[in-house]
Amino acid sequence: MVNLGSGDFTYKVSGEDWGNLPENWTYKEATAVAVDSKDNVYVFNRGTHPMVVFDSDGNVLRTWGDGVFANPHGVTIGPDDSIYCVDNGDHTVRKFTPDGKLLMTLGEPHQSAAPMSGDPFNKPTHLAVDPRTGDLYVADGYSNARVHKYSPDGRYLFSWGESGTDAGQFNIVHNIVTDNEGWVYIADRENHRIQVFDRHGKYETQWVNLSRAACICMDSGNDPLVYVGEYFGGIASNATGTDLGPRLTVMDLKGNVLARLSDQSYGDEPGRFYSPHGIAVDSRGDIYVAEVSWSDYGSQMQPPKELRSLQKLVKQS
Questions:
Q1: Number of alpha carbons in the 13 Å side-chain half-sphere of residue 148
Q2: Which of 161, 200, 169 is nearest to 184 (CA)?
Q3: Residue 165, helix vs strand vs coil
Q4: 82, 127 in Cβ contact below 8 A?
Q5: Is the bond preceding 121 in cis, omega lying within 30 degrees of 0?
Q6: How far from each other are the two terminal CA atoms of the chain, in whole angstroms?
Q7: Can you give the pTM of this predicted structure?
Q8: Can you give the pLDDT at residue 15?
Q9: What CA–CA distance (Å, rounded) separates 125 from 110?
Q10: Which residues of 54-87 are buried (b: 16+ CB within 10 A; e: fewer)?
Q11: 163 Cβ partners below 8 Å, 6+ apart?
Q12: Which residue in 83, 183, 75, 163 sits closest to 127, CA to CA?
C-alpha cells in the first residue's frame, strides 16, 4: 500500500480492485459507486452482476439488476436509502429499494429524445436528490446539454441548460450533486469546470482550473467537503505530463482547493488513476473511486485487457 495526499488529506491506497469478488466474477469496469446510511457500498458496473453491494470491509452482501440494464452509468442513494440508477444505454432513470425492487422509472426504456432537443432523455448520466425536499435533478449529458428537475414522485417540473462554453451552458453534463441548502453542483466535464446553480436553475458561479471534471460528491459533515474526480486532460503527445489528471481534488463549498490527490499521469501503479467516473465518501471519510478503465484504456490495448476499476482510499488520522 502507498499513501496519497498530505496533512489532513492523507489516504492509504492499495492500488488494486477493492471488494472481495468471488472467483469468476468481474466488474469489467465499475462505472459508479455510492454509500448508504450504513456505509454499505453499491458498485454499479458492466460485469457479472450490474449491482454488487458490499459491507465496508468489502464482503459481498447481495447482487441485483441482472438483465435489467443496457449500459450502467450512474448511481445515487437518496436520504431514505433508495437507489437511483441511471442507464445511458436505454435512456432511463430507475428507482429501487436497497435490495433491488423497482419503485419508479423515469423515461421510456429504449426511447430517446432527439439529440440536443432539450427534452428528457438522451443518454442521461447521473442524478442528484435534494436532501431537504426530495426533488430529483437528472444530468442529461451525452446527447443533451440539459438538467431536468422532477418532484420526488417523478413529476416533471422544468429543465435548464444548453450546449456551449458560456456560464450556464454545458459540454457533457456528466455528474450532479446537491447540498443541504439546495445548491446544485454540476461536473461540466469537457468544459473543465464545476458550475453551481440555485434550485431554480439560475447560474451562480463556476469553479475552474480543473482537468476534465467527470464526477462529484459531498461528504455528510456539518461543513461538507466536495470531492471531484478528474480525467486526464492532456493528449497522447504529453501523456507523461504532470498535474493534468487523472486525479481527485478536494474542495470546500466556496470552491477553494484543499488537496490534489495524485499529480501523475494515468497508470496502474498504486497512487495513480485511469478515469475517475464515479466517487463516494463514507462516514469515516474513506473515498471510493469507480473508473471506466476498460472503455478508456483496456479495450484499446493489444490484446484488450481488463484493468483496475474500483479503488478505496482509506483516510489516515
A1: 25
A2: 200
A3: coil
A4: no
A5: yes
A6: 16
A7: 0.97
A8: 79
A9: 15
A10: bebeeebeeebbeebbeebbbbbbbeeebbbbbb
A11: 116, 145, 169, 170, 171
A12: 75
Cβ(254)–Cβ(269) under 8 Å?
no
Residue at 157: amino acid letter: L
Nearest to 85 by CA among 135, 32, 131, 47: 32
Placement of cell 485511469 in the chain: 274
pLDDT at site 236: 86
Which pLDDT does position 161 carry in this prediction?
98
The cell for 137 is 435533478
pLDDT at 219: 93
Place of cell 467527470: 214
3-state DSSP: the chain helix, strand, coil percent, rounded to 5?
5, 45, 55
User: Side chain identity at 303, as an amino acid letter?
Assistant: P
Q: Given the DSSP bridges, would you call strands 162-163 and 276-281 parallel, antiparallel or unpaired? A: unpaired
Q: What is the length of the chain?
A: 317
Measured CA to CA, the distance from residue 16 to residue 115 in angstroms comes to 38
Grid cell digits, residue 146: 440539459
H or E segment at 239?
none
Q: In what order do the strands lie in the sheet with 72-77?
A: 72-77, 83-87, 92-96, 102-106
Contact 312, 39 (CB under 8 A): no
Judged on CB neighbours under 10 Å (0-12, 13-18, 19+), 99 is: exposed
pLDDT of residue 71: 98
pLDDT, averaged in runs of 10, over the chain (317 residues): 92 92 97 98 98 98 98 97 98 98 97 97 98 97 97 98 98 97 97 98 98 96 94 91 95 97 94 96 97 97 96 95
CA distance 85 to 44: 8
Side chain identity, residue 49: H
